[in-house]
UniProtKB/TrEMBL annotation:
Subcellular location: Cytoplasm
Annotated catalysed reactions: L-proline + NADP(+) = (S)-1-pyrroline-5-carboxylate + NADPH + 2 H(+); L-proline + NAD(+) = (S)-1-pyrroline-5-carboxylate + NADH + 2 H(+)
KW Repeat (keyword) present: no
Species of the source: Periweissella fabaria
Keywords, sorted A to Z: Amino-acid biosynthesis, Cytoplasm, NADP, Oxidoreductase, Proline biosynthesis
General function of this protein: Catalyzes the reduction of 1-pyrroline-5-carboxylate (PCA) to L-proline.
Name of the protein in question: Pyrroline-5-carboxylate reductase
GO molecular function: pyrroline-5-carboxylate reductase activity
Enzyme class, broadest EC rank: oxidoreductase
Keyword tRNA-binding: no
Domain of life: Bacteria
EC id: 1.5.1.2
Length: 263
């Protein structure tokens, strides 16, 4: 199966890393309309082709990884050569109906919302296939297998894509913000920044594994950390007082509102 990328930015590069981690021999065609993408392609042994149309012609699975505002122009370029190819769109906020209108009603399309940890095959990925793709079970299975290689994938109804996008697609940025804030506090008290980041990151990994393995809620697990009269409850209450939970929910509100305004 030949895979093609239209767009060679952050998400394309994260997916390509994950794909090559699984199979370093995978043929990947790419066009990104910029010298940066061409340089990236050459540095990673990808097949940089001259146009988006050429990506579509030479690939079995075409991953649309440009920005949502590029869809109309890209669709106009590739529509005439779409026959048996499967399209995977990672365009945030763009529905299957819009994709079908742009690319053709009979084109097999999967709407996918990955996140950047796909680069280490630890992504959290939403997907939904359109009717033409569902009618080709072998192609749908190929897409499912590709996504499973990149992380944990979830079949999500389209009306829940925005909330999924906020909690998984965007949240690596929010979690990075939290890691950085904790590490800054470590620096304030004398730790080197890289050591502080390593400590916080390992603690976050351990806590995430613990939440996954436990029957208790995160609130209950937090209560187990906070010894009566101890230091944790003092820090926990100060974080609540300064609005951490409210700030997080407000951030998710803004993320969802922006995603819903795309299409
Ligand atoms: N960055 C992320 O964590 C996530 C991004 N996405 C989606 O992935 C898509 C790409 O986002 P990023 O990689 O973050 O943006 P980016 O700005 O890093 O990449 C966009 C790419 O599109 C290319 N491009 C621009 N015009 C083009 C054209 N006419 N034909 C072909 N390529 C063209 C650019 O050269 C660039 O390589 C967006 O639709 C976004 O919603 C979805 C989930 C997560
Ligand atoms: O920021 C964005 O629009 C994309 C969608 C989810 C993550 N990145």
């Amino acid at each position: 199966m030949k895979i093609g990328f239209i767009g060679g930015g952050q998400m394309a590069q994260a997916m390509i890393s994950g794909i090559l981690n699984t199979n370093s021999e995978q043929v990947i065609n790419i066009h990104g309309g910029s010298i940066r993408t061409e340089k990236y392609a050459h540095a990673h042994g990808l097949n940089y082709v001259e146009s988006n149309k050429q990506v579509a012609l030479e690939s079995d699975v075409v991953i649309l990884a440009c920005l949502p505002q590029h869809l109309t122009a890209v669709a106009a370029e590739i529509k005439s050569v779409l026959t048996t190819q499967v399209i995977i769109s990672v365009l945030g906020g763009v529905t299957l109906a819009t994709l079908s209108t742009a690319l053709g009603d009979n084109v097999a399309i999967s709407r996918v919302l990955p996140n950047t940890p796909v680069n280490v095959n630890a992504g959290t990925i939403a997907y939904i296939h359109n009717e033409p793709l569902l009618a080709q079970s072998e192609s749908a299975n190929q897409v499912d297998t590709l996504l499973q290689q990149l992380g944990s994938s979830y079949l999500v109804s389209e009306d829940q894509f925005s909330i999924f996008s906020a909690l998984a697609g965007s949240s690596p940025a929010f979690i990075d913000l939290f890691i950085d804030a904790m590490a800054q506090a470590g620096v304030k008290y004398g730790l080197p920044k890289d050591q502080a980041i390593a400590i916080v990151t390992q603690t976050m990994l351990g806590t995430a594994l613990q939440v996954q393995a436990s029957n208790q809620t995160p609130r209950e697990l937090a209560a187990a950390v906070a010894s009566p009269g101890g230091s944790t409850i003092a820090g926990f209450l100060a974080m609540e007082e300064y609005g951490l939970p409210t700030a997080v929910v407000k951030g998710i509100d803004a993320t969802i509102a922006k995603d819903q305004a795309v299409d």
